[in-house]
Amino acid sequence: MNVNSYISALVQYGLDKELFEPCDKAFIINQLISSLQLSSYEPVEPSKLALEVILQGLLENAVERGIIGEDITSRDLLDTKLMGVLTPPPREVRAKFASLYMQDARKATDWFYQFAQDTDYIRRYRIQKDIRWKTATEYGNLDVTINLSKPEKDPKAIAAAKAAPQSGYPKCQLCAENEGYAGRINHPARQNHRIIPITIAGADWYLQYSPYVYYNEHCIVFNAEHTPMKIDKAAFEKLLDFVTIFPHYFVGSNADLPIVGGSILSHEHFQGGHYSFPMERAPIEQEILFRGFEDVCAGIVRWPMSVIRLNGPDRERIAELADKILRSWRGYTDEAAFILAETKGVPHNTITPIARRRDGNYELDLVLRNNITTEEHPLGVYHPHAELHHIKKENIGLIEVMGLAVLPARLKKELAELEDAILNDCPLNGELEKHKSWVEELKQTHNFTADNISCVLKMEVGKVFAKVLEHAGVYKRTIEGRSAFERFIEYVNQEENR
């Protein structure tokens, strides 16, 4: 197929997805040929092709003509520009969303999520490459994913990004100014990106979807202002207000301290979506009574991390109690349990909160976090310890806290190589050496065969993730850990702390 065929197919795709009106067709074609640096176009009967095939054909043509380089960054910049031509302007998207929301909140989000896929902001064909499975543990089935949807830059692209002039626009990848931004070598293109303005707790915020979709309808909610992450009473109120606006979604916030926070602490944002995480399904194993808040149901969740769950019909009361717990935790020290509020003036205690609706009530999970480091654990005491780094070394943020492991892409290759090495009794050298102790342990408990090895390794990776969460828990699931957790509850209930 020649370039004219691919252009015709892309235009037809846009019409089929109702991204523009038929009267805009000539305009769209002209914008496309301009973006492709073509001087002419010959109309042909459009073929029904998958969007990935269409874009791949146009990109290959652009590479052949020397318009772009062969690297993934150059390709992504151009195909986003092409899809941006098809994407309607923000005013139309916002009007459509508002109209649907007046009918039903779920209708609005259903449409917007599909729109984000149709415009290729969410690259479905990349998401499909992610490897996903569930592992049964004592905490229920945990979700595991090896993320392959984020394209890895080659060394030349990384070098070019470092050499590129630094820009303060947009301030970060979450800012509203990304909507329609052309991108650059060190910042993704966003011409096909659209955001929906919403009001949360009286302030201006925006709703968008994550381009990487770690779970169903993975949305990002971000402050209109570039302001740092902060966990306080206002944050709890915002989360509870969001699930009032979108009762079919959960929403949570990363913590506001390094190590236990997310990757972007400079811009206040939440993550939500239409998905039931393992932690949501985990039951209360010990009820708690907070004095003065007898109207709020509370309890400790049966989970590897330390979670207090609050539930009730009055969101204001839940926010008040959550604030009381947070303020208590911020200043709490229990040296016997190695919980230190601060060292040398550096604070360590914070909370990862998650809000949802359950049977008409409001529910707020408060995950106690601490980011203290030691010589033995320089990456964090309540962080995956070194013996687990062969599987998971990165920070344990909101998504992992709720029971979904987001594992590095390297594991796809490493697990495949491990299968061959184990079955053929080969030494574990190079990149596989870090798995040596783990594999030796597995050989003691499993009889590996060609038929079972893939399933067994996946199952065992999931069990490692359960241990990761146990390491991240400030109170361990032991008699001593439970006693220490109860000491904190008593501390919250002390009169002077009310």
Topology of helices and strands:
Elements: H1 3-16, H2 25-35, H3 51-64, H4 72-86, H5 90-103, H6 105-118, H7 124-127, E1 131-137, E2 140-146, H8 155-163, E3 196-200, E4 203-209, E5 219-223, H9 233-245, E6 250-252, E7 269-273, H10 278-281, E8 284-288, E9 297-301, E10 307-312, H11 315-330, E11 342-343, E12 346-347, E13 349-358, E14 361-370, H12 398-401, E15 404-407, H13 410-423, H14 436-445, H15 453-472, H16 479-493
Parallel strand pairs: 2-15
Antiparallel strand pairs: 1-2, 3-4, 4-5, 5-7, 6-7, 6-13, 8-9, 9-10, 10-14, 11-12, 13-14
Helix pairs in contact: 1-2, 1-3, 2-4, 5-6, 9-11
Major sheet, described briefly?
Answer: 10 strands, antiparallel
Q: Report the strand count.
A: 15
Poorly predicted regions: none
Share in β-strands:
15-25%
Please tell me what the overall shape is.
Answer: globular
How many angstroms does the end-to-end distance come to?
73 Å
Rg over CA atoms, rounded to whole Å, is 25 Å
Helix content: 25-40%
Structural class label = alpha+beta
Annotation field: number of helices: 16
Strand order of the largest sheet: 3-4-5-7-6-13-14-10-9-8
Average of per-residue pLDDT values:
94
Name the features:
498 residues, alpha+beta, 10-stranded antiparallel β-sheet, 3-stranded mixed β-sheet, 38% helix, globular
Give a brief outline of the structure.
With 498 residues, the chain is of the alpha+beta class. It has helices at residues 3-16, 25-35, 51-64, 72-86, 90-103, 105-118, 124-127, 155-163, 233-245, 278-281, 315-330, 398-401, 410-423, 436-445, 453-472, 479-493; strands at 131-137, 140-146, 196-200, 203-209, 219-223, 250-252, 269-273, 284-288, 297-301, 307-312, 342-343, 346-347, 349-358, 361-370, 404-407.
